[in-house]
């Protein structure tokens, strides 16, 4: 039986770890806030009180934490994975972080005798709960092949996109597309409401044409109800807009829409909506149009 140490059992990591148990892995989970390991234990996994305990006997270590400094701390920190896992362990980082940080951590991993894949995911909370994630993987082909059973347990579309860092670069592009898509949907919703069109009917028919999208399918409920429980928090998408805009700048690529949507995301954070789902970009459009809560 393959043992997986899973670090970060939040909105995404929690259900992903549960799917690994269902697929027959021995899963030892660690979460900073211990209570969040409970669902994994109830699903047949084991809870660990520290990263060291979660990874000591692991064949594979999976990580799902928010940002670049968090991944750095979990991997390279004093009490981290590199200090406590067995040499040769395969590390799969599912978090969405800066491509340059991934590349640097992969080099550090190699120097310490580990193998690392960057494997950020897309598909939202629903994708995690339904084991239907899209997974964009960067790293060595043989490590990708070794990790395939883990990927197949949590994802539907799994693609090896290149060397370390390439997975994160594809994820940055993903976040540019998703944010722009949500912003366009939010503007359409506000426009339709201003004309008193029945929104449910309008979104149903829009969903069947070229305007249809996974964003529309997954986010229309929030747009209709005006409630935005996360999901994917604005503060995390703000992080991702920073990643894509700075990486584009470094490459000399101009992203006019990406820059604008990043500002709108920053505005949502500044007014206190950082803990809401990213579909709360709708609230920003309503504010700009003087139509709050309509
Ligand atoms: P989340 O619910 O906040 O979960 C993050 C987990 O990481 C929490 O359990 C948190 O512990 C833990 N954590 C945070 N900082 C840590 C640190 N320094 N050391 C150890 N553990 C730490 O976030 P999420 O929505 O699952 O997102 C995780 C990653 O997936 C992010 O990179 C995000 O961009 C990406 N992602 C999210 C979605 C989505 O729809 N939510 C979709 C695709 C990708 P505590 O419980 O103590 O806070």
TrEMBL record:
Sorted keywords for this record are: NAD, Oxidoreductase
Domain 3-hydroxyisobutyrate dehydrogenase-like NAD-binding, which positions?
165-283
Domain 6-phosphogluconate dehydrogenase NADP-binding, first and last residues per copy: 3-162
Sorted alphabetically, which InterPro entries does this protein's record hold? Answer: 3-OH-isobutyrate_DH-rel_CS, 6-PGluconate_DH-like_C_sf, 6PGD_dom2, 6PGDH_NADP-bd, HIBADH-like_NADP-bd, HIBADH-related, NAD(P)-bd_dom_sf, Tartro_sem_red
One Pfam family this sequence matches: NAD_binding_2
SUPFAM superfamilies in UniProt: 6-phosphogluconate dehydrogenase C-terminal domain-like (SSF48179), NAD(P)-binding Rossmann-fold domains (SSF51735)
What's the protein called, per UniProt?
Answer: 2-hydroxy-3-oxopropionate reductase
């Amino acid at each position: 039986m393959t043992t997986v140490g899973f670090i970060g059992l939040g909105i995404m990591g929690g259900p992903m770890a549960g799917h690994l148990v269902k697929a027959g892995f021995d899963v030892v989970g660690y979460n900073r806030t211990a209570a969040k390991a409970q669902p994994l234990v109830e699903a047949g996994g084991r809870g660990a009180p520290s990263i060291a305990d979660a990874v000591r006997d692991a064949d594979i270590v999976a990580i799902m934490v928010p940002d670049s400094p968090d991944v750095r701390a979990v991997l390279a920190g004093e009490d981290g994975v590199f200090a406590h896992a067995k040499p040769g362990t395969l590390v799969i980082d599912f978090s969405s972080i800066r491509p340059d940080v991934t590349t640097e951590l992969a080099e550090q991993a190699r120097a310490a005798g580990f193998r690392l894949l960057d494997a950020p995911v897309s598909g939202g909370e629903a994708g995690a709960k339904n084991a239907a994630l899209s997974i964009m993987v960067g790293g060595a082909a043989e490590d990708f092949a070794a990790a395939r059973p883990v990927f197949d347990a949590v994802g539907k579309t799994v693609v090896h996109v290149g060397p370390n860092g390439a997975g994160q670069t594809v994820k940055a592009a993903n976040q540019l597309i998703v944010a722009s898509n949500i912003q366009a949907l939010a503007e359409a919703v506000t426009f339709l409401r201003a004309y008193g069109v029945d929104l449910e009917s309008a979104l149903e028919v829009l969903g069947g044409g070229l305007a249809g999208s996974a964003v529309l399918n997954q986010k229309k409920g929030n747009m209709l109800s005006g409630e935005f429980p996360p999901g994917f928090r604005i503060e995390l998408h703000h992080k991702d807009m920073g990643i894509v805009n700075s990486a584009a700048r470094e490459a000399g690529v101009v992203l006019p829409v990406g820059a604008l949507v990043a500002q709108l995301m920053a505005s949502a954070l500044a007014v206190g909506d950082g803990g809401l789902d990213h579909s709360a970009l709708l609230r920003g459009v309503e504010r700009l149009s003087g139509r709050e809560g309509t």
